[in-house]
Amino acid sequence: MAHMQDWPLQVSSPETKLVPLQEPTGNESNLQPATGIAPSHTLITLSTLPTIPVPRPTAVFLSAEVVELVKNEACVRMVRIILNETFFPANEATLNTMAEKALDEAITQSSNAVDLKKWKMQLEGQHEIRRLKGILTRIRNEFKDLALTSVINAYFLDLAINKRGSARAALRIERIHSLLANNSFLHGFMMLIESDGQLRPFNIPFGSNAIINMLEIILSEKQYHCFVFYDGSERWKNCLMNLISFISTTFKWALRRYSMGRLPAAEFVTAENAAFYQAVSRQMYQMSPLAMIYFDGLLVDLRDAFRT
């Protein structure tokens, strides 16, 4: 790796130096007649300015292969942190902490951890943190684009192409308003076996076919199941709940866009969407005991279906 050249630091103010007096010879005396004081030193101003060298930066020698490996591992860990923690960090500082955590975890597991910690503090390491932060934007864009194409078929929002003008989208808009009322687009009926062995429909929280189909696309087709924590802990459940909260947010955003008739441009990262995402996440912990049983069963089924 290239090293910075050491540049001397010029001192801007004159310096002084203590110089011992020479011993007097013969009858010479260094006593001062006026004061009777015999100083042992006198101050002499230096005619030239000294230089102070800048400390040499610590050299870091890492192969390109080692650096690339830690970058790849940091990317994996950043996606896992997003899935496990949040798609809407509170602020830039929180996102920066997530990125640093991903890089620190990747560095810690490397046999070159000592040098990589120094590398992290240099320009390339800081650039890597910025790149890791950008992963969140990429994932959010990918998911919201999927939502725009998914909700049309998932919620039967066909256009009445045989009609003209505003009548063409009237039924679609009416249907969307019905779905958005009380957030009914989130939930769905599933057939469950009762204790008597009979199949009966039950309203399952977040059991909408649209959400389940979207999870299949994300976890199976897009291979995001690789980033879910299947390590014997319960973290897999937190990842799936976080995914459902974010998918729910993208669906509401997409439905509201289609409710305008045409598809207008609309920001996604807004305070309103962040608040809805948080509200959905809270709702998952505030269900009735029976609803929680159904929801836990749904999560287990999702885990088993899309684990590989």
Automatic annotation (TrEMBL):
Source lineage: Eukaryota, Fungi, Dikarya, Basidiomycota, Agaricomycotina
Protein name: DUF6532 domain-containing protein
Domain DUF6532, chain residue ranges per copy: 76-283
A Pfam family that the UniProt record links to this protein: DUF6532
Positions with biased composition (Polar residues): 24-33
Positions of region (Disordered): 1-36
